[in-house]
Design goal:
By secondary structure, this protein is of the alpha+beta class. It has six helices and 25 strands.
Length: 382
């Protein structure tokens, strides 16, 4: 019997909370063993940017694109840059594949630094294994080139076999997509501005009003009268005068401040893998659960009816294949159990385990609880 495994996302901390005041509203804070601010937020203005480019991968052992017009024209154009003029009709592209190159350039990336790139086939190439990417300029949404990529491709898979009529192939993962670690050199820095009008905005990765209020108060305990929660995601922090020319030092000091963020009551169900994860603050109303199942199995088999040997020689009989069907019904004993005083998901899980409920059935029960209004939490299905 499979058991339900409850994984609390936020456990209770041992240290006793310290009361504080935000205006006239009491806020409960915890300054020992909590999460650091740097692990909870993104600084507004310090963001990644997406880059992309079109290029060619060469050196493929006959696994490149077939005679695709765009690939042939790209090869002809690449050869022209070296003073070689070849009609596209005379080019064979079996060792070349057209690809799209994508990358993310992080904030504060300086010219000369390197970033990873992903290479993806856009033609009918069978695999990029063993290929080398020719130099490709990578541009942003503003059509400005910020990096240049080139290098051998690492493919996390393979394609083996000849294929075709009478042949067989063996494939692992997706050999038409590969990466080049540190394959692009940054040529231009993306402008980044994290300070505006003497303040900066800290954006929570998980929006929550309580977490935003706790973060503002935790900052004010260290840097008085500098932080205010604008909404459930943004905390505005004024840079103190003594840090006027040292914004990075101030941001580093903010990142080390600890607090206990709040979490949303949520149950996440992954039906493909059978995993159920629930936060510790999920509550359930008093509910009755019935569990039972009816299994009907139908098996079809084929049997051969063969006449006696002397009759076969005289043409008096022949072998006949007769189908045979067997039907069986297996009904498990159902049960109806009232989950008494079940304010937490732990007690509900214990009661369901006592019924002998499998993980798959438990998923259906939680969905039904949600529709019945008994599950006081957000239900997420993957």
């Amino acid at each position: 019997m499979k058991k339900f495994i409850l994984i609390p996302l936020l456990t209770a901390l041992l240290a006793s909370p310290l009361p504080a005041q935000v205006g006239d509203s009491p806020i409960t804070l915890n300054y020992s063993g909590g999460s650091r601010i740097k692990d909870l937020i993104d600084v507004e203005g310090a963001r990644d940017n997406q880059l992309n480019g079109y290029g060619l991968v060469v050196g493929l052992a006959g696994t490149g694109d077939s005679k695709i017009d765009s690939t042939l024209q790209s090869i002809a154009n690449a050869l022209k840059t070296y003073g070689i003029n070849v009609p596209s009709d005379d080019i064979k592209s079996g060792n070349v594949a057209a690809v799209m190159v994508t990358a993310d350039i992080g904030p504060f990336a300086k010219p000369g630094s390197r970033i990873d790139v992903t290479v993806s086939s856009i033609g009918d190439s069978k695999t990029l294994q063993g290929g080398v990417l020719l130099q490709v300029p990578l541009q942003g949404a503003d059509k400005t080139v910020y990096a240049v990529a080139q290098g051998p491709i690492a493919v996390g898979g393979f394609l083996g076999g000849q294929g075709g009529p009478g042949g067989a192939t063996v494939q692992k993962n997706f050999p038409t997509v590969g990466t080049i670690p540190n394959g692009a050199i940054v040529e231009r820095e993306v402008p980044t501005q994290i300070v505006q009008n003497g303040s900066m905005n800290l954006n929570l990765r998980e929006a929550d009003y309580i977490s935003a209020a706790r973060m503002a108060e935790a900052i004010n305990r260290v840097f008085p009268n500098t932080a205010v929660a604008r909404d459930g995601r943004t905390v505005n922090v004024i840079i103190p005068p003594e840090y006027g020319a040292y914004e990075v030092n101030f941001l580093a000091s903010l990142g080390g401040i600890e607090l206990e963020p709040d979490s949303v009551a949520r149950v996440v169900i992954n039906e493909r893998t059978g995993v159920i994860v629930a936060t510790s603050n999920v509550r359930v109303s008093k509910v009755a659960v019935s569990h039972g199942s009816l299994t009907i199995s139908i098996a079809s088999t084929l049997t051969a009816s063969q006449p006696n040997a002397p009759l076969i020689g005289n043409g008096a009989g022949q072998t006949v294949v007769l189908p045979s069907t067997t039907t069986g019904i297996d009904e498990q004993k159902g049960s109806f159990k009232v989950v008494e005083e079940a304010p937490t998901i732990e007690k509900v899980a214990t009661a369901l385990n006592a019924l002998g409920v499998s993980t798959r059935d438990m998923m259906s029960i939680f969905q039904t609880m949600k529709r019945a209004g008994a599950l006081q939490a957000e239900l997420v299905l993957n």
